[in-house]
Predict the structure.
Amino acid sequence: MRVLLVDDDPRITRAWARILERDHHEVITANSPAEARGWLREATGLVHLALVDLVMQEGSGLALIPEIQRRFPDALVVLVTAYLDTEASIAAQEIVALVVTKPLNARMLRRLVRLAARPRGRWGAIVARCLPALSAREAQVVTARMEGINNQGIADQIGIGVRTVETLWRRIYDKTGLRAQPEIVAFVASRVLDEKAKARSQNAAGST
């Protein structure tokens, strides 16, 4: 797996890199947003996981994230911050699926690698298509529910608390006008059935 690390403290990127390289991953490090952008302009191949520090002396990691996502749309992009309750970290939850707090130990790094290695399930694309108003984090919650995962399982999978999951559900209800998880599951499933019926109808019309 190829991992991009962006943090303005070289001690942190070196520590993360040592752990990841021991596990035989390829690691690219950048110690400023400018250095990361320079690498992105010349990059070839894929990046599977990107860890980006939120607050850096030469600029915010928040502005860098969309650039990474455009260059590597299939990568798991994770924002790393010292404080989850700041305005910037809350804003970050609108554009990334995962925000984690420092310090990151070997166990957490390996957990993130496992998450990045998971194949993107079919429900992720379906949820994004059916519920386009949701943020990346909210869509991740709905996707996990479509896969049969309960709130505790969602919290464990994403790495957040159950109360945060419940807060995300309230935001989802406000955006969709639906009021319960079963309603949202039924809505997404019905959209899938409608799309399949439309496709069958078009195929039948094309064959006549």
The mean pLDDT is 84. The domain at 122-207 is CATH 1.10.10.10 (Arc Repressor Mutant, subunit A). The radius of gyration is 19 Å. The beta strands are 2-6, 26-30, 49-53, 55-56, 59-60, 76-81, 98-101.
